[in-house]
Amino acid sequence: MPSAEAPRSPKGAGDIAAAPGGYRKGEEARARILEAAMRSFGASGFKAATTRQIAEDANVNLPALKYYFGSKEGLYLACAREIVGRYETRMLALVTDAGAALHADISPTDARARLKAVIGTLAELLVSSTEADIWTSFVLREMADQGPAFAILYEQLWAPGVALTANLISRAMGERAASPAARIHALLLISSLTAFSTARPVALKYLGWPDASDTRFASVRRVIDEQIDRIG
Amino acid sequence: MPSAEAPRSPKGAGDIAAAPGGYRKGEEARARILEAAMRSFGASGFKAATTRQIAEDANVNLPALKYYFGSKEGLYLACAREIVGRYETRMLALVTDAGAALHADISPTDARARLKAVIGTLAELLVSSTEADIWTSFVLREMADQGPAFAILYEQLWAPGVALTANLISRAMGERAASPAARIHALLLISSLTAFSTARPVALKYLGWPDASDTRFASVRRVIDEQIDRIG
DNA sequence: CTGAATATATATCAAATGATATCTTTTGAT
DNA sequence: ATCAAAAGATATCATTTGATATATATTCAG
């Protein structure tokens, strides 16, 4: 009976943290693989991305992916967790503040200002960053496909983000709790940002912009801010 | 020298219309393949969709795809053309009217009403229809990936649609020609609809809706209409 | 009814791809 | 310096997949 031997050290698939030891060089290789995988998965999706391409981009050989992440799906899940972590790094302070403020029963005007800050930061992340749009592609694709990483991304990113947005919109409209209209509004507002993340090349082409310079980004943000000003 | 023989009849790849004759039953098979292909490509994308799955869904054998469309890419392009045609069928009258009205220098109020009609119809198409969201997935994916069908879809669907929306917004704001702000606004408005097309299952899940009933759709449309009312 | 045009079916091919068995090299604590 | 753990490299499998050569069946105009 050829029963499966336990892998020699790093990961089996449902890993959470490195178990025993681990050399520095190994951790670097692991990081390179994760980076390359986020790019490939983000650009092409789970099925269309190939492990060979990821291995090549990461400068490792093919079995290294299995060694560090167990399987293609294990690697995909690890990417999802990494993306959640990176969004949190960039948004957590702002989001925590806004959440606390909501709890403290802020004024509609204050809510509007915080909504601008949150959406503005998110917009900047999506529009300007050359790496965040890869995360966004990853997340949006998973929201549409509902693949292996759906639960992680929905529960830890999408739902909390939309809920916060809905609560801020609700407060800005003078409501006490988020109405269906406020929640619909939140979905529409966040989804509208895809125009400049997933579909950024097309948007730039349509606008005749060679790239997303600071000045140009400012004009996008101005339009979004105006929309927020008109809420309520 | 095994030079490529011309296919026995239907398509070589860059087909436009059936050349000579063609039996009725053949045309039915062709239609089934196209239908199945739009579903597969829309749901999975070019690379991830498999010709075998498409053939099975269409109740034909594998070589039939080559026989009718030349290759996987030929089939993909045929889907793009078909989707352009179907959108036109459902939107053309409205779009033509709005275009003519713009040319006739309508009032901001009229422009706003027409904008509501166009976006409302589009929203209804995306939200309610179980087939139009497949076309939308197809189109949006191509806008992001810029694959073989990009030129067709951009030039014949996306750009004209966004341009019309931008012009109506511009007119509603009292402008004489579409400003950058109006065009950005148009991009955001159209992109926001993805919340209820590509990402519809997630939106329903978040809202706690088991499905998109007429009543529920009406509340989505109301929020969108309010946003249009606040333009300018 | 007949036959050329049209359409369908069978059987493979070659390349791409995820996975993995096996061997060698490197690392770093002792 | 030694050695077990960790990491990397090579070679190869089994599937999947797009493509197609070839044979058979069907359609419908005359």
Folded structure, characterized:
The structure is a homodimer of 232-residue chains. The first copy, chain A, has helices spanning 24-44, 51-57, 63-69, 72-103, 108-128, 132-145, 150-172, 180-192, 200-207, 214-229. Chain A has 232 residues and is an all-alpha fold. Chain A has a domain at 79-229: Tetracycline Repressor, domain 2. In chain A, α1 packs across α2 (51-57) and α5 runs antiparallel to α7. The relative contact order of chain A is 0.10. Chain A binds chain B through residues 44-45, 47-48, 137, 140, 143-144, 146, 154, 158-159, 162, 180-181, 183-185, 187-196, 198-199, 201-203, 205-207, 219-220, 222-224, 227, 230, and chain B through 44-45, 47-48, 137, 140, 143-144, 146, 154, 158-159, 162, 180-181, 183-185, 187-196, 198-199, 201-203, 205-207, 219-220, 222-224, 227, 230. The structure holds a DNA duplex (30 and 30 nucleotides). Chains A, B: Pfam families: CecR_C (PF09209), TetR_N (PF00440).
